[in-house]
Amino acid sequence: MPAYTRFTMSPTDPVVSGFYRAAAGLEPWQGALDRIVALTDSWFCQMIGVDKATGRVAFSLQSSEAPIDGVLDYVREYHRLDPHVRTAETLPLGQAYNSSRIVPARHVSANPFYRDFFLPHGARYTVGVKTVDDEHLFSMCAILRKPDQPIYGASAERTMEALGYHLAQSVQVMRTVSTLATQASIGQLLLERSERPSYLVDSTKALRYANRPGLEVLARGGVFVQRAGFLGCVDPVSDALLLDRLMALDLQSDPAHEGPKQTRLAFPIRDAATDKPVPVSLWALRPEGTMGVFGTHSLALMTLAMRQPHAQPDPLVLASMFDLTPAESSVALQLCEGKVAKDVARKLRVSEQTIRYHLKGLFRKVGVSSQRELLHQLRLAAELCS
Q1: SS3 at position 59
Q2: Among 322, 320, 328, CA closest to 78
Q3: C-alpha closest to that of 174 among 25, 327, 330, 30
Q4: Judging by DSSP bridges, how do beta strands 198-201 and 299-304 pair with one another?
């Protein structure tokens, strides 16, 4: 480990010890980063790792006040445009950067990253430190403040430099112990906001996560039952069908299953308590296709929903079906409400040029050439998955 600048904090300090406990899986990273927020009087704290081979975000950990929509936008797209990352890459390990020196106040309004992402999501100032920079991984940790908070000074820089060594060590511990725990994934935070019963399972039906509505369905009985960590259907015919559909998903190579692999499937299972069919949607979540927001292993997202007339598309479903960025999903939802580009730009607080850029991405990913065709496909998706 290279020498770090000036000084480090003691491993027995509660802030520092929290890093190591989180890295070992003994407490959530959210709580460990919350302590940095309190120490520096910040809005939130984020630690990211970028896979150098692909340029994609390998992990993103954040404190409790982090705006999840903004974090998702950053992970899926805007980290590539972040001038703070470019600066951190050039600095020695453990040396802090300050956004006020990277993008001076007079240049903020003209900077695309600030104009289209940073400011619209409520951020203004940041101080960060590079923690790992090896053959495979680049990682950094940053604290952020809102426009109505004071600008960061030298004290915040010294604090981040003091924490830098231990943050770096904790990342290395995390890499050694295991891949990122599912509980740290952004995807879980997104699923917690969904009103649909949702589950993350692997190809063997091992249950990795259930959101609150999903847990309520489990507790009610009739549809699912959990046995020894595995999710099963109460109805045996439905249970066999679910396993067959999971094997058909493009999660991993399975020579025992004949036929082409699928990335999404829809089918009914039976509620044994009411003897009525329950619509199920399965989505293959592969790290390379979801920017790792659901973790570093391939999983299946399973959702239950009742069909509703004139349903609006769910942003999570849209992102999964068409591999949309959160920004593209937001634009799509606004279009489905009947808004034109100018109105969407005003609503999302971005430029019309940015909206046109996202529209081009939507056309390409959905496979259409006009806004009318786009709306038709999005509403079909809503009908299929609602």
Answers
A1: strand
A2: 328
A3: 25
A4: antiparallel
Q: Which residues contact 122 (CB under 8 A, 6 or more apart)?
A: 43, 67, 70, 146, 147
Q: What single-letter DSSP state applies at residue 104?
A: -
Going residue by residue through the chain, which has 386 residues, state the pLDDT in tens, using 9 for 90 and above: 344 444 456 655 888 988 988 887 677 788 899 999 999 999 999 999 887 877 877 778 889 898 877 887 887 789 999 999 999 999 999 899 999 999 999 999 999 999 999 999 999 999 999 999 998 889 999 999 999 999 999 999 999 999 999 999 998 887 766 444 444 455 565 666 677 898 988 777 788 888 888 999 999 989 998 877 788 899 888 888 888 788 777 665 444 444 445 677 888 888 998 888 888 888 887 655 544 545 556 788 888 864 444 455 666 666 656 777 778 888 888 888 888 889 999 888 889 888 989 999 888 887 788 888 888 777 666 554 44
What tokens were used for 28?
């959530």
**pTM for this one?**
0.57
The CATH architecture of the domain made up of 187-385 is: Orthogonal Bundle (1.10)
Helix ranges (DSSP H) in 236-351: 236-248, 287-290, 315-322, 326-336, 341-348
The C-alpha atoms of residue 322 and residue 306 are separated, in whole angstroms, by 22
Which DSSP helix (H) or strand (E) runs through 86?
A: helix 83-90
| Nearest-angstrom CA–CA distance, 72 and 77 | 8
162 DSSP 8-state letter = H
Q: Which CATH superfamily is domain 14-181 in?
A: GAF domain (3.30.450.40)
* Domain positions in the chain: 14-181, 187-385
